[in-house]
Every structure is written in C-alpha cells, then in structure tokens.
Design a protein that fits this description.
Radius of gyration: 22 Å
Number of domains: 3
Order of helices and strands: EHEEEEHEEEHHEEEEHEHEHEHEHEHEE
Bound molecules: S-adenosyl-L-homocysteine
Strand order of the largest sheet: 15-14-13-16-17-19-18
Number of helices: 10
Low-confidence stretches: none
Mean pLDDT: 96
CATH topology of the largest domain: Rossmann fold
C-alpha cells in the first residue's frame, strides 16, 4: 500500500477521527496513486494515521480505518455486520417494516457508500471511485450478512460517482435479479422504483416524520407539496385526513404517488394528485384551502456557492404557504441541503414567518431518523432539518 504524507500540522482533524483528508493538506511530492486506490496516510514526521480511498478532488482521501488495515471482504463483513446490528437494535427489521437504510456513509464508518434495503433487495450506491471498485466484495458480504435476508443486490451509481473519474458505471444487479419491488414502511405498502426513481428509489429518511404527520392528520385538509412517491400522503390518509392533495412537478412522481395511494387505499376519493410547479400551485391556491401542509423540496443548495439563493428559496416557499394557511394550521417544513445549517434554515423560516405577520409557534424540531446516523466525528453528516409549526 502506498502511503501519502500530510503537510506539517495537518493531522489535527484526523487525530480527532474526522474521516476526510483535503487535497491541500497533502505535501506536493507524493507517490503515483490511481483514483480509487487504497492508500495509507501519515504525518510529516512519519506517524501512521489511517487507511482510506484516494480520489482526485478536494477530498483526496476518505479514511476507512484509523489503523494500517487491509480493505478486504473481512473489513466489509465487519462494518456491514456492525451497521446491521444497529438497525436490529432500532427494531427496523419487522414483518410490517421491510425498508430501512443499512449503510449511511460516514455515519456508519463507510465513507462513500450508501445502502438501502427493500425487503430481499439491497440497493447500493457508491459515491467514491474506491467504493465502486469494492462493489462486488460488498455485494457478496451483503448476501452473507446473517439475519438480513438479502438475496438481490442492485448497484445504482450512474449518477453518484464523480463524472470526471470516467468509471462508466452500469446500473445493474450484481447478485440475483428482480423479484418484485413492494416494500413495507410501518405497515404501509410502497412500490419502490430503484430502476428509474431518484436516489435509491425512495426517501427512507422521512419515515419518522411521516409517522408524526399521521398523528396530526385527523379531519385535516392536507397538501403534500413535493410529494415524489407520496409517502406523506399515504400516512395522512391512514391518519383519517379529510382530503389529501399531492403536488409534484414531475409527471413520473405523480404516477408513483397515485400507484402507492391505490396500493393502500384503493379507490379512495379523498386523494388527488397534481403535476404542477410548487410555486405556481401556491400562487393559485385559495386562502384557507388547507390546514396541514408539508413542504419537502429537493436540496435547494447542492453546494456552498448556492447557499444565498437557497436560503432565499426556502424563505419564499415558506412565505407563500404561511400566507394562505387556514387559522389553526400545521406546517411541516424541511430542508435536506447539507450546505444549509439548522440555524440558517430556521432563520429562513423565521424570515418567512415575519413577512407573513402571523402568530407562529414551533411545535417540533425534526431531523433524520436513526438509520441515517451521524458519525460524532463528522458533524457534516447531519443534513435533514425540519420544523413543525402551528400557524394561528
Ligand atoms: N417528500 C418526498 C421527497 C421529495 S423529493 C418523500 O417523502 O418521499 C423532491 C421532489 O420535488 C421530487 O419528486 C421533485 O420532482 C419535486 N420537485 C422539484 N422541483 C419542484 C417544483 N418546482 N415544484 C414541484 N415539485 C418539484
């Protein structure tokens, strides 16, 4: 294994187990390493720090282990075993719940790797060339993971790997094949489209927040904005909402939502879905048309550079909803942008509230669920932020 050297004093964050080595922290004169190669990292005085995957880019090495360690089947079996033990402790593998996140990158000490489980199928996403090269070992370890019941492994990294690495990944089954795509979340059925859908096909990260929404739904007129697969809508229907309207700009999302509603509540006249732009829909919306609204937009800031515009976007969106909510409404509002901090998001929502002039209380402060854990040494892993507001 080749060993890369840090500039003097650049080991500070690594000594606190932060798993990233930025390219600027490395001395210029390094051995020739290939993208995706397993490398060692040492301090300027030659103290060994850890083993990781090398990548061309601002994060040059993602540390996999803070020791001199072989990155082989034994390593992945151990890490996947630990990750699965956590999910078992969380009680997420149940007859009425067959979908959960098994691996959440740095949060599970596997930077560059995401794995979601849908019944007997695991959907694997590599975010680093190093993990791409390990995909077959990972797939084998997954089907050998005792008690997890994984029989099929679908690899889906066409859009998650750095384009410049020219790895040309194919989305395909590494093991097994298609055996159906119905998964259960808290007893509700969902068709998961990992072949064509966004991310791994489903936003597993809103499970707990959907359950909270159900609790508030009884007798309410619900608007699920940015509905994607209709997760929040199905929970609202189960919670005895008076009516549920789902909105997404993508026709495909509307088809998925209608199908998931039909799967759980066939022929239920309380639900309608609209393929429309969120801002246009809110502009046309009548005052008081809804008294429970969900705003779960895509990440407005994918990078730090887009931060200011993103914050303006959150403010505008929330203002448009707050302005027209019926008195006594509940608003679930989210941001999944990693670049936006909890404080910044709250400030954007605060600005929207002030602009609307309404009396607003914060009822809940929401985050990502426990199967999307945050590595305590890598606070950047906290990305999902939500507020539940009571609007008088
Ligand atoms: N709430 C969903 C996840 C939302 S993902 C869940 O629980 O699963 C974000 C969604 O916003 C995507 O489906 C995307 O198609 C939609 N979207 C993006 N821009 C939009 C816009 N301007 N208006 C309406 N929908 C939009």
């Amino acid at each position: 294994m080749k060993v890369l050297k840090l500039k003097k004093g650049k080991e500070e964050s690594l000594d606190r187990f932060h798993p990233w080595v930025f390219s600027g922290a490395l001395v210029d004169n390094q051995p020739d390493v290939d993208e995706g190669e397993v490398v060692g990292v040492e301090t300027s005085s030659g103290r060994f720090i850890g083993t990781g995957h090398y990548q061309i880019g601002s994060i040059a090495v993602r540390i996999l282990d803070f020791s001199d360690r072989k990155i082989d089947a034994e390593f992945f079996a151990e890490r996947l075993g630990e990750a699965f033990a956590v999910r078992k402790a969380l009680g997420l593998q149940r007859p009425d719940n067959t979908t959960y996140r098994l691996v959440h990158g740095e949060g599970d000490f596997l930077p560059g790797l995401v794995i979601d489980i849908y019944g007997p199928t695991a959907v694997v996403q590599a975010h680093s060339p190093g993990m791409h090269y390990c995909r077959d070992i990972i797939a084998r370890c997954l089907v050998e993971l005792k008690g997890a019941g994984i029989e099929n492994v679908y690899y889906k990294s066409e859009t998650t790997l750095p384009y410049k690495a020219r790895l040309d990944p194919q989305n395909d089954y590494l093991i097994g094949g298609y055996v159906g795509n119905e998964a259960l979340e808290n007893g509700l059925k969902f068709n998961i489209d990992w072949l064509r859908g966004q991310k791994t096909g489903f936003f597993v990260d809103q499970r707990d927040n959907r359950a909270l929404l159900q609790h508030y739904s009884k007798g309410r007129k619900v608007l699920n904005m940015f509905c994607y697969t209709g997760g929040f809508s199905v929970y609202a229907l189960r919670g005895d909402a008076r009516l549920v309207h789902s909105v997404d700009s993508s026709e495909k999302a509307i088809t998925l939502t209608d199908a998931n509603v039909a799967l759980n509540f066939p022929g239920d006249a309380r639900h309608r879905a609209y393929a429309e732009d969120a801002f246009k829909f809110l502009d046309k919306m009548e005052d008081g048309a809804y008294d429970l609204v969900i705003l779960d937009p895509p990440a407005f800031a994918k990078h730090r550079s887009a931060l200011r515009n993103a914050l303006r976007g959150y403010q505008k969106l929330n203002f448009k909803a707050m302005e027209k909510l019926a008195p006594g409404s509940i608003l679930f509002t989210f941001s999944c942008s990693q670049a936006v901090s909890r404080e910044q998001f709250r400030l954007a929502v605060f600005s929207a509230a002030a602009q609307s002039g309404r009396k607003i209380r914060i009822l809940h402060q929401l985050t990502q669920p426990a199967d999307h854990p945050v590595n305590i040494y890598h606070p950047e892993g906290e990305y999902l932020k939500g507020l539940v507001l009571y609007v008088e």
